[in-house]
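Running this now, will post back.
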Amino acid sequence: MNFSFCQGCGITNQPLIIENQFGLFCSDDCYDLKLKRLGRKRPQVKSCQVCSAQFETARDSAKYCSADCRQEQSKAVVAQRVKAKFAALYPGGVKHKTCRWCEKPMKVSAKKSYAGRLYHPDCSKEAERARYRIKTVKRQNKLVKPSRLAADEVVRTYGSDCHICQLPIDTTLPRTSKLGLTVDHLIPLSKGGTDTMDNLRPAHWLCNIKKSNKLPEELNA
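Update: finished.
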């Protein structure tokens, strides 16, 4: 049996049955007395709200057994708030936008992988061809401001036959295919032609390359 000085009542020569970081005590009352002097409370056993593990703490507000559990709970709370905000902004998970090509309303999934879409599925290919055509016009003549016309619009106006060889053009072929659809300027930009609908015609890629910057009369000569 351990006999020494009790940190609570100060009496010596009596059994000390409690030993902890605050010293030796002869009874629970002496232990509580010591804690009261220090302005502390006796640790109590609680259950972690995340992992359900048992832990001791003197704080009444303690809910978690470790910093990792506290951080995990914080992440869950933030995720729940984001989900609620998402549901409020996009009811039914649908985001309403305006197509940048046809300028008509469209609906897209509000998920991150889909929310950035700019065009209707039908307009996407047409817009892509227009971007390629604008790049080509800029490359041919820096002084000409390219008009916002797509190859598909030229086909709708003049048909899908190549104006050079008069044979049909397969519009499903990629732009870089030899028989793919391109837009040709009747009067080349380098010779004063304009980038307007009346100066544009559909042509095979290969025919367009062979024509180069020739004028119509030079082509038929």
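The two ends are 123 Å apart (CA to CA). More later if anyone needs it.
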